[in-house]
Amino acid sequence: MNAPTPYLLLPGTARDALTFYGAVFGCGVQVHTLEELGRTDGPADAVAHGYLVDGPVSLFAADADDGAPLRCEGLMLALLGAAAPEVLRSWFTGLAEGGRVVDDLQSRPWGATDGQVVDRYGLHWLIGFEAEG
């Protein structure tokens, strides 16, 4: 069974966002424009469908038809134990660039380390790992 994959509808920033996430997570990026797909319902260079490839994180994105900003209320994307602690620390730092740290990456009383960040595109991330041993 596959896990759910987030599909972001962004206000004309899908290409930039996918490039950013690809750099943070070490993924390749595939982007298909409206023109490539034979669509005429928006600007020819708008992203009709894009995604991360060959990396540890799955994510899809497209430019929203109405240009409305991404709104993510009551939702976090969790990367808990998804990679080695040093990699997760790097992802946290990368996602925080141009974004906002909600709760710094720190050791918790129960022995885990975690933190939260809202990235420059408005996604809320929870990143963490079990105690390093």
Concise overview:
The protein has helices spanning 14-25, 85-96; strands spanning 7-10, 28-33, 47-53, 60-63, 77-80, 100-107, 113-118, 124-129.
Distance between the termini: 31 Å
Give me the Rg, rounded. 16 Å
Biggest β-sheet strands, sense, barrel:
4 strands, mixed
The ordered string of helix (H) and strand (E) elements is: EHEEEEHEEE
Q: How are strands sequenced across the largest beta sheet?
A: 1-4-3-2
Instruction: Tell me the fraction of residues in β-strands, as a range.
Output: 25-35%
Q: Quickly give the structural class.
A: alpha/beta
Looking at CATH, which topology of the largest domain would you report? 2,3-Dihydroxybiphenyl 1,2-Dioxygenase, domain 1
Give the CA-based shape. elongated
Number of strands: 8
Number of domains: 2
Write the CATH architecture name of the largest domain. Answer: Roll
Written description of the protein model:
The chain has 133 residues and is of the alpha/beta class. The chain folds into two domains: 7-63, 2,3-Dihydroxybiphenyl 1,2-Dioxygenase, domain 1 (Roll); 77-129, Signal recognition particle alu RNA binding heterodimer, srp9/1 (2-Layer Sandwich). The protein is built from two helices and eight strands. It comes from Actinotalea ferrariae CF5-4. This is Glyoxalase.
